[in-house]
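question for whoever is on the cluster today: can someone run the full assembly for these? two chains, 735 residues total. i dont have access anymore since they changed the login thing
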Amino acid sequence: MPTTSYPKLLVLGIGNLLMGDEGVGVHLAQRLAEQPLPSGIDVLDGGTGGFHLTNYFTSYPCLILIDATLDERPPGTIRLLEPRFSSDFPRSMSTHDIGLRDLLEGLQVMGQMPKVYLFAVSIAELQEMHIGLSPEVEKVMPELEERVKVLAGELVGKGVKV
Amino acid sequence: MSNRIVVDPVTRIEGHLRIEAEIQDGKLVDAYSSGTMVRLIERILQGRDPRDAWAFVGRVCGVCTTVHSLASCRSVEDALGIVIPPNAEIVRNLMYCAQYMHDHVVHFYHLHALDWVDVVNALQADPKATSELAQSISNWPKSSPGYFSDLQKRVKGFVESGQLGIFTNGYWGHPAYKLPPEVNLIGLAHYLEALEWQKEMVKVHAIFGGKNPHPNYLVGGMACSIGLDDVSVINAERLAYIGRLFEEGKRFVEQVYIPDLLAIASFYKDWAAIGGGLGNYLVYGDLPTNGYNDPSSFLIPSGAILNKDISTVYDVDLREDAQVQEFISRSWYEYSEGDKAGLHPWKGETNVKYTGPKPPYEHLNVEEKYSYLKTPRWKGNAMEVGPLARMLVGYARGREDFKEVVDSALAKLDVPVTALFSTLGRTAARGLETQLIANWAMDFYDQLLTNIRNGDTRMADTSKFNPERWEASAQGVGHTEAPRGALAHWCVIKDQKLENYQLVVPTTWNASPRDPEGNPSAYESSLMDNTPIADPEQPLEILRTVHSFDPCLACAVHLYDEDGKQVNRVKVL
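^ ran it for u. tokens below:
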């Protein structure tokens, strides 16, 4: 249970929609964007935005990131991390991680790093290009959605009823 | 002694990119470039509605999202005979200019500069001397001794904590770093300022494209609408904001990027004789001022240069069967006509047949097929694409604006025009074209305002949006000059669906494997061109040349001894 509450936060799904499970963050952002959420919670499909996302990191005091990770855990494993430095991120994130890591390093040096929560979803391996999720990852989508919504609700001080 | 070096970087377009190279007597003697991840966007697009293709291709790459969408719209418009209204052309050009300025500045400061600037050494700088130096090369206001000493204090904490990759993962202290501490400190300061600056520049995309990242495009024009007094569309206030973004962008390019580039280059003139490579350059052209169908109106002219001979520029025709062809003799694909064939992209085939070693492997078999990239050739020639190609073709075509920025930079560095055929030339060309683009953006902006004031607010031609008005079969080609180089999408439309869709991206031109004749492509050729390696444990020199192409990657460098054993592995941001 987070102890701080924020006036607003951004749920930011990142990943490549064209690469199967690698797009899990984007799939979740697109699902959340179709739902009514409490005021103060914004949702963005960050795609493979990298540096293009800087402005979102500096205009929200708190972000919840959702991204895929290749960490040899069973596909569909969900972990919640609170990274402070880019080195705290899972070592092997997906193909878009380079820009994001550089961006986070820069924010750190500029003293503009917001509070970041990261839901890292384990995926099997980078697959051939296709759109859609594997059964293993699709199966955990309701749990992922619920956990993101609950955390977001707590963080903006709206309790768990989302 | 011969060392095998493996550079295994990652690009966002192609997936993983890997370079295997041999060092002998302190120099690179052989190099092989391989794309190790398959890219089958072509397959995703087959059978889809051509009007939707821009949205899918926009997701291929996170950095160049807009250029793929632009090439796709142009390709489909070309096939269907759609001519977009002048304002749509200008808005596309403005988004293109913003993308360019953003991408080149980010590439320079956040990827490439650290190959030349030793950020840890910046802590040794004297803030007062740094301030004097900064003020002698530019009017940029953030240049006081206090500014630089505050920065040093802040950075010192990060360096000592060891928590940030930028200060722990580089080859800091490498003998190939030649800048005085004061220049390093200026570079570090602007690394941070550029980070702040770039987040403003991309707002142009959010305004014209409705969102960012992955802004909206539209076959037939642009999806935005303009009304000076309408609060819900692009109105006078938003246009004024865009004008300010471009003005500030131009100021940063002129007062920060260019002075830094020239100051840094002046300490690395030896790199004007390293990494030149092919000497063949290809440009498709871009920034139309009288429509996509009038190449003579392009601010970036098209053309080809062979063997560094800038007295002759050849015309380029992307429709002609024998000009652009892709080969697979060294790539993990098969063609119905066999391995020797070269196919024009309209007849392109994308059938994967992997015959490489089973991962994880130590070495590729570079004597056979060794890449997922196909090998494109122009009239059979290996070509380099990118900023250097564009600056050379503009220069060789005698364009005054190109000559002015190039000659001025050459004079300041006191080097001949042949210095351009090098790693240093490639890096300098990127800055110089950013200068041109920043100027052109202001002209496009003024033109847009003039059109709107004259009552022209048309943004799209939708007369052929309905598929019932299309021919039963059609084919088109859409090209652009992406920041990294010439990009084109070829589409074949049959019965209102995409039957074939082929992308030939800049990285494919530059990073592809050898062709059926055994000739290397741009990366391979450049690495084999006079590249010294001071310390095989830290092959900074390889990164300088690979990064000069803007491959958009982080490099994981693996080093092997002569027995093929891995001796070191260094992750480089």
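summary bc i know u wont read the tokens: Residues 135-155 of chain A form the longest helix (21 residues). Chain A touches chain B through 37 residues (CB under 8 Å).
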